[in-house]
Each structure stands twice: as structure tokens, then as C-alpha cells.
């Protein structure tokens, strides 16, 4: 693995493949990366309850030849970048400020996605979705918007799919899913119990699961494949309106990569619906 992309994202994505000792190192680093960059190798080893050679194996796994290079890259990931900040909108704001901040927050969310997306994860998901006999798309709360968007676009791409929304339908899904099918799950936090249960039960039934969620989350660890998207902070209290954009952006990416793989001459466009369906004048 080469040191490219977000190091914290790489560590979270690799978490399931780590041995017990290296996993403890990963937990210490990701739990408080600001503190980790100030730890000596001996201090990190003591904090993680591992040996110094384990620390060496850990940073070499991510393409670094020296511990200081690893810490420097981690520190670079933590430097605040102004273009990716979220501007809160308050009750006293003018309409002009609402328009400006809403547009800027949307642009910033997409810029952050460009930095965080893993090309390998998207490639793997594309391959899995194209081979599926049927695709169930599960979500709850604000993530339902992305699930419905995916259903609409996947269907028009010619894929057999359905957005599975609501607890009763999702309960039925966990009972009937089978090998050859794919369950695509959208969750911002990756900690929603019902979504984690769907992933685990679908895997038990032989289906393949793809989670579009926070790296390192319970859902990310329960699914067969991950497309990691970092959530905004404290989303259990307030969810910024821009937070769902990157999930829908990911849907567009998947549709386009699948269209390319299927030989479409216009992969970034979907065939228009017949006029009688949309009742045009």
C-alpha cells in the first residue's frame, strides 16, 4: 500500500484485515489522532500494549519506511483546510446569506468527498453490483433519499433493484435475501442498529453487502464491502442539509462506472423516460 489519500481513511478501511496487536494500534491512532502524532514510538507501543516491532509493522503496512514519516503524514491529514469547513446558518441570516452559505457548503461537501473517496472501493462495488441477480437498497432517515435516488437510476440503467424502506419491508428483506443478491446500505453514521442487523443477516443468508457509510463504524465492519464517506460531526444532534450530497454523488459515480463497464456510449447520462410516462405536453 502506498501513502496516498487520507491516512485515517486507509487505516479505517484496513481495520478488518489487521491482526489483534495492530488493531490495538489502529484504535489508539484513530481514537485521538491529534494526541497520537505527539507520541514517540515507545509511547505508542505502551499505549497500545504492543511491542516496538508491531509499531514498525503497522506503519510499514501503510507504505511508510520510518515512524516520523508516518506521523508527519498523519499530522498533514489533521491540518484544518478552510475550503472544507461547514458554515452554519442562523436564524438572523438574510436570504442572500442563506443562498451563499448553502451553495458554499454544498461545494465544500463535494470537495471533501473528492479528497476522501477510495477509487478501489468504488471499483469493487461497481463489479459486485453488475454481477448481482438483484439489488436491495436499504436506508433509514435522511439516507432514504440516497436509496430512492439509487433505485431510480439503477432501474433506468437496466438493473433489477428496489429501495427497501421501512421496518416491515426491511424485516422481510432479512428473511428472504439469498446468495447472488446484493444488499446496498446507506447510513451516514454507520451506527444505526437496524442497518447493522440487515448487513449481518444478509451475509448469513449468503447475500453480498455493500455499506456506504463512515469508515470504522459498526456497519462498515459488518459489511462485505465498504465505500467510506466521512460523516459530519455530532450528526446524532443536528444533521447539516449538505450532509446527504456525497451519498447522492456516490450514486452518480456508481451509475456512471457501471454504464462504462456495460459499454454505454453516454455513461454520464441516463436514457429519458417515454413521454407517456412523464405525461409531457
Give me some keywords for this one:
5 strands, Rossmann fold, 2 domains, 14 helices, 281 residues, 5-stranded parallel beta sheet, alpha/beta
Topology:
Elements: H1 7-14, H2 20-31, H3 33-36, H4 41-48, H5 52-61, H6 67-78, H7 95-116, H8 119-130, E1 134-138, H9 144-156, E2 161-164, H10 167-176, E3 181-186, H11 193-204, E4 208-213, H12 218-222, E5 225-228, H13 245-261, H14 275-278
Parallel strand pairs: 1-2, 1-3, 3-4, 4-5
Quick summary:
By secondary structure, the protein is α/β, with parallel strands linked by helices. It has 14 helices and 5 strands. It has 2 domains: 7-78, Winged helix-like DNA-binding domain superfamily/Winged helix DNA-binding domain (Arc Repressor Mutant, subunit A, Orthogonal Bundle); 118-261, Glucose-6-phosphate isomerase like protein, domain 1 (Rossmann fold).
Amino acid at each position: 500500500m502506498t501513502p496516498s489519500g487520507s491516512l485515517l481513511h486507509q487505516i479505517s478501511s484496513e481495520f478488518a484485515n489487521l491482526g489483534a496487536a495492530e488493531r490495538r494500534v489502529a484504535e489508539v491512532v484513530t481514537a485521538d489522532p491529534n494526541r497520537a502524532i505527539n507520541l514517540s514510538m515507545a509511547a505508542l507501543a505502551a499505549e497500545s500494549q504492543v511491542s516496538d516491532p508491531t509499531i514498525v509493522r503497522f506503519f510499514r503496512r501503510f507504505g511508510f519506511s520510518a515512524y516520523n514519516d508516518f506521523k508527519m503524514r498523519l499530522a498533514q491529514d489533521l491540518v484544518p483546510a478552510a475550503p472544507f469547513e461547514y458554515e452554519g446558518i442562523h436564524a438572523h441570516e438574510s436570504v442572500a446569506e442563506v443562498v451563499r452559505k448553502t451553495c458554499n457548503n454544498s461545494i465544500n461537501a463535494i470537495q471533501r468527498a473528492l479528497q476522501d473517496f477510495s477509487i478501489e472501493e468504488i471499483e469493487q462495488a461497481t463489479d459486485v453490483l453488475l454481477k448481482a441477480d438483484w439489488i436491495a437498497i436499504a436506508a433509514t432517515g435522511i439516507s432514504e433519499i440516497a436509496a430512492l435516488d439509487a433505485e431510480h437510476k439503477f432501474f433506468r440503467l437496466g438493473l433489477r433493484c428496489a429501495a427497501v424502506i421501512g421496518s416491515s419491508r426491511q424485516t422481510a428483506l432479512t428473511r428472504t435475501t439469498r446468495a447472488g443478491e446484493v444488499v446496498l446500505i446507506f447510513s451516514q453514521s454507520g451506527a444505526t442498529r437496524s442497518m447493522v442487523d440487515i448487513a449481518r443477516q444478509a451475509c448469513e443468508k449468503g447475500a453480498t453487502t455493500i455499506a456506504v457509510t463512515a469508515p470504522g463504524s459498526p456497519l462498515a465492519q459488518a459489511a462485505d464491502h465498504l465505500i467510506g464517506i466521512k460523516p459530519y460531526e455530532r450528526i446524532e444532534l443536528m444533521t447539516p442539509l449538505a450532509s446527504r450530497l456525497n451519498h447522492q454523488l456516490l450514486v452518480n459515480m456508481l451509475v456512471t462506472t457501471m454504464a462504462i463497464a456495460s459499454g454505454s456510449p453516454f455513461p454520464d447520462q441516463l436514457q429519458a423516460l417515454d413521454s407517456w410516462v412523464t405525461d409531457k405536453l
